[in-house]
Amino acid sequence: MSHKISRAGISLIKSFEGCRLKAYKPVPTEEYWTIGWGHYGPDIKADMTITQAQADSMLVADLAKYEAYVNNPAYVPVTAQLNQNQFDALVSFCYNCGNGSLKKLCTGRTPAEIAQNITKYNKGGGNVLAGLMRRRQEELELFNKAAEATKEDYKLELTTYQWTTLRTQVKTLLDEGKITDKSWLDKIDKKTLTTSELAWLSFVVAQK
User: In terms of C-beta density within 10 A (0-12 exposed, 13-18 middle, 19 or more buried), how is residue 200 classed?
Assistant: First the structure.
């Protein structure tokens, strides 16, 4: 199964994006408007407002999109070599800089070489921005942080009731289109879900 961003990665993204319920442009030269947890694109219009629930739902969808880019060897040729911290750092980078910059950063480079170049992406509108400098530095620190061998990688030990409840919740998420990867149900049925994967599912469920 493809990697999923961890709580540490989500916290990093949230800490820099912040959540604003009215459309804005962090830099006047931006082509599109931004809203929620840094959701950016042609679907956002000037003076648009959303609820907190809508902002959280946008975040879930955006995270899945940027995870897919980092999991894709066409954008990150060394994706199979990445540990959780490196994956999280690149999802944050892609969330902020886009898939084009992700591909440029990673193509033809080893993980060590990627780390050497992350902090170069610190400009907005042609100018070096202090906020981007801080974000790239934190992403670099996370990328270089040794992955800990913790219980996050262990298989879950749940009761039959807990497995059944979890399956019902995941089935609902699939039916509602909140997630699309049906292999989640297979992992639940086979009881091979890990604690880190459960943390991701719990995050998605909490956004409902």
Answer: buried
pLDDT in tens, 156-199: 677 887 888 888 888 888 888 877 778 888 888 888 877 667 77
Whole-structure pTM value: 0.72
Instruction: Using alpha carbons, select from 151, 92, 81 the residue that is nearest to residue 118.
Output: 92
d(CA 152, CA 38): 28
DSSP 47: T
Q: Does residue 1 lie within any of the structural domains?
A: no
39: Cα within 13 Å, side-chain hemisphere? 28
Same-domain check for residues 91 and 177: no
Does the structure show a pLDDT above 60 at 151?
Answer: no
When divided into structural domains, the chain yields a total of: 2
Could you count the other beta carbons within 10 Å of the beta carbon of residue 110?
A: 12
- Residues marked as catalytic: 17
Please say if the pLDDT value at position 63 is more than 70: yes
Domain range spanning residue 188?
151-206
